[in-house]
Design a protein that fits this description.
Chain lengths: 120, 620
C-alpha cells in the first residue's frame, strides 16, 4: 500500500507541483490544505502518513500547525517546505516537531529523498 | 523536470497574489499604524518568491526576496509605515507584475529593476530592528564534561541549503539515541551565516557506530559522518509510479468544448425537429433523453466557465487610488457584488470598458476637494462599482457623485456636428448616450492625460453591443453620473424569441425582452410623427419590423408586439407572429457594409435554417 500524504500550502501552484512530484513517485495525495487551520483539521480527519507543510500560510502559520498536529499525534511525520532565508523559522519548526525540510525551489529528487527519510 | 507546463498556473496564481498585495497595500495606506495588513502583504510577496524561484525566474524571486526583507522588518517592529515606504512597495507590486509577465514570456532580462532593488535594500537597512529585539528561540544543549560519549563528526553536503537547520535536524535525530554534549560550533553559531556545514559533538549512547551513522544520515544532505567506523547506508531507490490527480484546464479547451456543445445543441434541435415530424414514440423518447443530457452537459460547461467578477474588479481600487492622487482628488471607492459570476470570455472583455468608465468618473466626474466644498458637497467624492443580478442578466453599475455631464456643452457640440437638430434645446438621457457614443465625440475641452482625448463612451457602447449587452447613462448636473451596463451571463448560448415577419424569421434574445402584448389597433396613437401604443396608461413607442426591413405585402390581422426594454427605455417591436422560445447558439459576424445596424449575429435553427439575431440596442 502506498503512503498517504497531506499537502499544505497556500499556493495552488505549489500544492499542484508537490502533489505531482509525489503522485508520480507513487505516493497517494489524500488531501490538500491551504491554511494552518485547515491543515490541522484535515490531519485529524485523514491521518495521513506524511504532511508537507508550508511555513508561511494564512490563518495559522505552518509552525503553529506543526505544534497543533504534534500535540494531537506525537508520531506525526511532517516535512516542512521552506524558502531560502528562513533558517530561523525552519529551526523553530524542527523544535516544534517537524521531521525534515525541503527548500524552494523544489527539485523533485530532493523532495522525494526527504519524503523517504521522513517515512523511514 | 519540464516546468513550462506550470507557467500558466504560475502566472494566474501570481496575478491573484499581486491583486491581494495591492488590496492590502491600499488598506495599509488607509491605516498606516495598523500592523494587520503586513502579515498578508508579507505572505503574498513570500508566496510569489517561492513560486518564482521554483520556476527559475531569478529576477522575480530576487525582487520579492528584497521586498520581503523590508516587510519582515515591519513584522518585527510593528511600527507605522511611511508614505515613502508605501510608495516603494506599490512600485514593487507594479515591477513584480511587469517582471512576471516578462518572465513567463521568456523576456526576464528585458526588465531592469536595479534601482528598485537598491531602494528596497536601503529602506530595509534603515528599518531593521536590532538583533536582540527579534527574540528568536534557540535550541540549547546541556553542557557536559568533555570526553564523555562517542565523538561524532558530521560534514554536510556543500550544496545543502539552510545548513544550520539541517545541522539542527542532525542533532535532533541523534538525541533520540542518547544524550548530546559538547556541540561545536555553538548552537547560536550554527544558525549563523558563517556556519560551513562542519559539525562535531559527543553522543552518550549504547548504540553502535553504524546505528549512529544511519541516524545522522537520515537527517539528509550529509556528506560524511565519522564515528568509529564509516560504513554508510545505501540510499534507497525512488519508486516510480504513474498517477495524476489534478486536472488543470486551459481556457482555450473550454472554448473548444463550448463550441462543440454549441454544435451539439444545434444538432439536437435538428433531431428534435425531425422527431416532431415523424411522431415515432421510441424516437421521441430517445430524443427527449438526448435533450436532457445535452442540457445538463451545457449547464455544466457553462458553470465551469463562470468566473466571479472580483477577478477583474480587484485591480480597480489601485487604479482609482493612483488616478485620484495624480489628479489631486479625494475619492472613496466602493465595490459591491464581487461574487456575481460571468462567463470568463465576457469578463475578459469588460475590463477595458470599465477602466474607461472609472477613469471618466474620477477624471471628469469627481471635482477637486475645493470645488466640492464650494458646491456644498463633502470634499471626498464617491465612486461605486457594483455588480448585481437582474432577471437572468448581469448588471454592472459605475456611478459617481461628481459634477455630472455638462449637457449644455454636449448639446452645443452635438448641434455643431449636426448630431441633433440645430433647434434642439434639451438632451434627455437616452439622447445623451447616443451623442456621447458617437465615435470620437469629446466633451472635454482640454486634452486630459488621464482619459486621453474624449470620453471613450463609444468604445464602451460598441464593446457592450458586441457582447450582446447594452449601456445606459443617467446624469444629473451637480449630483453625478451613473452608467449601467447590462450583460448576458454567458456568451454563446442564449434564450431567444423567434419572430416571423413576412417569409423570414428572426431571433430576439430574451435579455432585453420585457413582455409581449397584442397590437390592438384602437390604442395606437401618433406623437411627433411616431406611432405609439397605450399600454397600461403608458405610451410605448412602436417600431414596425416590416417597415424597417421594407417587407412588401399586408401584415396579418392580429400582430403581436414584443416589448424591448433597455433600462428605462421601452420600445414595442411589431412583428407578424411569434414562433416560440428557443435556445440559440450565437455566432457573431461582421456585417457587410450597408447592412441595417440592427443585427448582432446569426444562428442556425434546428431545421437547419440560418436566422439573423436582432440587436435590441439597435432597435430601441
Amino acid at each position: 500500500m502506498s503512503h498517504t500524504v497531506l499537502v499544505c500550502d497556500d499556493a495552488i501552484f505549489m500544492r499542484t507541483m508537490i502533489a505531482d512530484i509525489l503522485a508520480q513517485a507513487g505516493y497517494e495525495v489524500v488531501g490538500e490544505a491551504e491554511s494552518g487551520v485547515q491543515a490541522c483539521e484535515k490531519y485529524k480527519q485523514l491521518k495521513p502518513d506524511l504532511v508537507t507543510m508550508d511555513i508561511v500560510m494564512p490563518d495559522m502559520g505552518g509552525i503553529d500547525a506543526v505544534r497543533e498536529i504534534v500535540k494531537f499525534d506525537p508520531s506525526a511525520r511532517i516535512l516542512m517546505c521552506s524558502a531560502m532565508g528562513q533558517q530561523a523559522l525552519v529551526v523553530e519548526a524542527i523544535q516544534a516537531g517537524a521531521k525534515d525540510f525541503v527548500v524552494k525551489p523544489f527539485q523533485p529528487s530532493r523532495v522525494l529523498e526527504a519524503v523517504q527519510r521522513v517515512l523511514g | 523536470m519540464d516546468l513550462s507546463q506550470y507557467a500558466e498556473l504560475f502566472r494566474t496564481e501570481t496575478r491573484d497574489h499581486l491583486t491581494t498585495l495591492n488590496r492590502l497595500l491600499l488598506e495599509w495606506e488607509q491605516q498606516p499604524e495598523s500592523p494587520e495588513p503586513v502579515a498578508g502583504i508579507f505572505r503574498a510577496v513570500h508566496t510569489i518568491k517561492g513560486m518564482a524561484a521554483t520556476m527559475g525566474y531569478a529576477r522575480v524571486a530576487d525582487l520579492a526576496h528584497r521586498a520581503e526583507t523590508l516587510l519582515d522588518a515591519f513584522r518585527q517592529s510593528r511600527r507605522a509605515v511611511t508614505e515613502a515606504e508605501l510608495e516603494l512597495l506599490f512600485k514593487t507590486a507594479d515591477a513584480l507584475e511587469e517582471l512576471v509577465t516578462a518572465s513567463v514570456g521568456g523576456r526576464e532580462q528585458s526588465v531592469d529593476v536595479t534601482p528598485l532593488l537598491e531602494a528596497l535594500d536601503g529602506a530595509a537597512a534603515q528599518g531593521r530592528p536590532g538583533e536582540a529585539a527579534r527574540g528568536r528561540r534557540r535550541i540549547s544543549f546541556v553542557a557536559a564534561p568533555a570526553g564523555a560519549g562517542k565523538k561524532v563528526d558530521v560534514i554536510l553536503s556543500p550544496d545543502s541549503p539552510l545548513k544550520g537547520a539541517r545541522a539542527m535536524l542532525v542533532l535532533q535525530r541523534v538525541a533520540t539515541l542518547g544524550t548530546v554534549h559538547a556541540v561545536e560550533p555553538a548552537p547560536a553559531a550554527i544558525e549563523g551565516e558563517a556556519f560551513d556545514g562542519h559539525l562535531a559533538f559527543r553522543l552518550e549512547t549504547g548504540a553502535d557506530a553504524a546505528s549512529i551513522e544511519r541516524e545522522v544520515r537520515l537527517a539528509g544532505d550529509v556528506e560524511r559522518v565519522v564515528v568509529e567506523s564509516t560504513e554508510g547506508a545505501a540510499a534507497e531507490a525512488v519508486g516510480e509510479g504513474v498517477r495524476t490527480r489534478h486536472v488543470r484546464v486551459d481556457l482555450r479547451r473550454l472554448d473548444i468544448l463550448m463550441n462543440v456543445i454549441g454544435e451539439l445543441v444545434t444538432a439536437r434541435g435538428r433531431v428534435e425537429h425531425l422527431a416532431d415530424r415523424l411522431r415515432d414514440p421510441d424516437l421521441t423518447d430517445g430524443v427527449a433523453t438526448l435533450s436532457t443530457l445535452t442540457a445538463r452537459l451545457q449547464q455544466e460547461i457553462i458553470q465551469a466557465r463562470m468566473t466571479p467578477v472580483w477577478q477583474v474588479f480587484d485591480r480597480f481600487p489601485r487604479l482609482v487610488r493612483d488616478l485620484s492622487r495624480q489628479l489631486g482628488k479625494q475619492v472613496t471607492f466602493r465595490v459591491e457584488g464581487k461574487e456575481i459570476e460571468l462567463d470568463r470570455a465576457i469578463l475578459d472583455e469588460i475590463g477595458d470598458p470599465l477602466v474607461h468608465l472609472l477613469r471618466n468618473a474620477v477624471d471628469h466626474g469627481i471635482e477637486t476637494p475645493d470645488a466640492r466644498t464650494a458646491a456644498g458637497k463633502p470634499p471626498t467624492g464617491q465612486v461605486v462599482l457594483a455588480a448585481l443580478r437582474d432577471r437572468g442578466t448581469v448588471v454592472i453599475v459605475v456611478s459617481d457623485d461628481g459634477r455630472g455631464i455638462d449637457r449644455t456643452r454636449v448639446l452645443g457640440e452635438a448641434r455643431r456636428r449636426g448630431v441633433v437638430d440645430a433647434g434642439a434645446t434639451e438632451l434627455p438621457d437616452d439622447l445623451l448616450l447616443r451623442v456621447l457614443s458617437r465615435s470620437g465625440f469629446s466633451t472635454v475641452g482640454e486634452v486630459s492625460e488621464v482619459s486621453g482625448r474624449g470620453v471613450g463612451v463609444d468604445v464602451v457602447v460598441t464593446r457592450l453591443r458586441e457582447l450582446g449587452g447594452s449601456v445606459e447613462v443617467k446624469s444629473t448636473e451637480g449630483a453625478g453620473t451613473t452608467f449601467t451596463l447590462r450583460l448576458p451571463p454567458t456568451l454563446a448560448i442564449v434564450q431567444a424569441l423567434l419572430a416571423r415577419v413576412g417569409d423570414e424569421r428572426y431571433a430576439l434574445p430574451l435579455t432585453h425582452v420585457a413582455e409581449t402584448v397584442e397590437l390592438s389597433t384602437g390604442a395606437v396613437t401618433e406623437i411627433d410623427g411616431r406611432e405609439a401604443l397605450m399600454v397600461r396608461d403608458r405610451l410605448l413607442p412602436l417600431v414596425r419590423l416590416r417597415r424597417v426591413l421594407a417587407i412588401a405585402g399586408d401584415p396579418p390581422a392580429r400582430q403581436p408586439v414584443v416589448v424591448l426594454q433597455l433600462g428605462d427605455r421601452r420600445t414595442g417591436l411589431v412583428i407578424d407572429r411569434m414562433e416560440g422560445q428557443r435556445e440559440i447558439v450565437v455566432k457573431t459576424f461582421a456585417p457587410p457594409k450597408g447592412t441595417l445596424p440592427i443585427f448582432s449575429g446569426a444562428t442556425v435553427l434546428g431545421d437547419g435554417q440560418p436566422v439573423l439575431i436582432l440587436d435590441a440596442g439597435g432597435l430601441v
